[in-house]
Amino acid sequence: MERRKINPMLKMVLEVGPVVLFFVAYLALKDRSFVLGGTEYSGFIVATAGFIPLLVITTLILWRLTGHLSKMQITTVVLAVVFGGLSVWLNDERFFKMKPTLIYLIFGSILGVGLLRGQSYLRLVLEEAIPLRHEGWMILTRRICAFFFGLAIANEVVWRMFSTEVWVSFKTFGLTAALFLFFMGQGKLLQTYGEKK
């Protein structure tokens, strides 16, 4: 399928909507427990069980509308299904809390391997969106690689040392804000190494 552009607001709703709805569902269900098939499940597990199919559905809609999914989107969905599924199946919220750590470690490692080979794998993914000279791509890739490893460590610290409520807020707002602020902070690099089209 050829790539198609869709309304940016619709794209954002499809990408961010499941995470926001997970947050809302968690707030509504956090103090409740549910007995299904003789097993008691916390509100967190029930919210996770709802999040998984919602994420799959919105990702399929995005793919259908655009004709394309990034490797990051595919990996995120696969890890959400695997680790969210393990959390629900084993009734253990730790698996789902580990998912962001694994996502950031995987992408940080992929970028790190490219850097060791003298290449920017980031360039392969974003070259059309961000026109940069080679030096700019290498600097940006090093920064994002380190940033991903930093996010992985931050997620581990938060889910292991704080309450589930703190982690849900951190995952929903903290990680999103960190990504936004990081990319906003790259303006000087983009200006210095940008290529005129």
From TrEMBL:
Alphabetized UniProt keyword annotations: Cell inner membrane, Cell membrane, Membrane, Transmembrane, Transmembrane helix
Name recorded for this polypeptide: Inner membrane-spanning protein YciB
Lineage, highest ranks first: Bacteria, Pseudomonadati, Pseudomonadota, Alphaproteobacteria, Rhodobacterales
A Pfam family hit: IspA
Record organism: Falsirhodobacter algicola
Its job: Plays a role in cell envelope biogenesis, maintenance of cell envelope integrity and membrane homeostasis.
Gene that encodes it: yciB
Membrane-spanning ranges: 12-29, 41-62, 74-90, 102-124, 144-162, 168-187
Similarity-based family: Belongs to the YciB family.
Localization per record: Cell inner membrane
Highest taxon above the source species: Bacteria
Keyword Cell inner membrane: yes
Membrane topology recorded in Swiss-Prot or TrEMBL: Multi-pass membrane protein
GO cellular component: plasma membrane
